[in-house]
User: What shape does this take?
Amino acid sequence: MELAEQVISKYINRFKSQPQYLIRAPGRVNLLGEHVDYNAGLVLPAAIDRATYIACSPSATPHSTLWAVDLNQEAFFSAESVSAKTQADATPLPEWAFYPAGVLWSLRQENLSTPAMNAVFSSNVPRGAGLSSSAAVEMGFMLAWQALGGWEMPALQLALLAQKAESQYVGVNCGIMDQFASACGIKDKLLLLDCRSLEWKPLTLPTDIAIVIADTSIRRKLAASAYNERHQACAEAVRLLQKSLPHIRALRDVRVEDFNRLSDQLPVKLERRARHVVEEIERMNQVEALLSAGKIQEFGQLMNQCHASLRDLYEVSCAELNSMVEIAQTLKGCYGARLTGAGFGGCTVNLVEQTHAENFALTLAETYQARTNLQPEIYITHAARGAELIEI
Ligand code: NG1
Assistant: This one.
């Protein structure tokens, strides 16, 4: 049974009625522009064909009741209780409930109507794998409360409110990329987003190129604190560079030549972190021209350079991600391979010639398993539409 049908049938069993709404909100994969969204740079994500599905209806109780099918846990909370980060009976919110509770908190700050709901949800975006399972949950509940509250807001505005939930309520000081991609995805398109102006445009990959996701099966540990630490390092680098470049507001504003000239003003570790960002933003400046001209080989080279930089300078890779990338880069038909998302475990993204994609996936899985003794999951993905209400 499809996941959408499963959540509907579980809803009917649990709440003894038909759900009023069904929502689908996708995860995302990022092709290039990693760890630059919170440095005001450009990113290139696509929504993917894996998503969170939510079946929901208004509730007659004063609190919302949510069943997370994948964890087989329920939480119940109200607008008042989430302000105190608790459930309606004052017990602590379970960790997974911070995402929907954060959405409720963020919407209440805007004084938007957020009626209590009964909801059942499930996701096939792997958790902690760099594919934005959290943004999928957040965007799903954004749409749920939008439908139940009877108000409407542009998708990008919803994404900004979801980002606020993640950074100020959940406590991961993230950029806008994930929520944007989940909200604004377009079928078969990559999304080139300027994280400063929030202007964006769809870009097309040639039809004979496949996007292959390879899940190392390693899940992140302590990723939130390491992520926040990288964020702080970038802010600190800006502060130090401002002594020579007073006009800069973010690492986006530092040109590679200026950085090279001034890099010895930064402590060694901070220099490596900032160099990744400055050079990655420079790589991103080439993307539109390369993709418009169909120069996939050159684009793939940028992906490979990005991985090396995340591994050696930003230090967010791990042995398993490096193995997956090294193997992929030797295989026939592979233009580029790199870790995707925050890193510290999770998935790689690979651009592969369509005719070689099946073989690529098979050989990559076999070789990775032989080398690491771990069972990876490898799949060919397609850029998908963003979060939406589905007719039931
Ligand atoms: P993932 O991999 O989904 O955790 C994180 C951030 C993004 C972005 C990337 C790195 C969250 C929720 N999202 O993505 O904003 O900074 O890392 O490019 O932490």
Observations:
- The first strand starts at residue 21 and ends at 30.
- Residues 34-35, 37-38, 130, 132, 134, 166, 172, 174-175, 177-178, 227, 341-342 surround NG1 (CB under 6 Å).
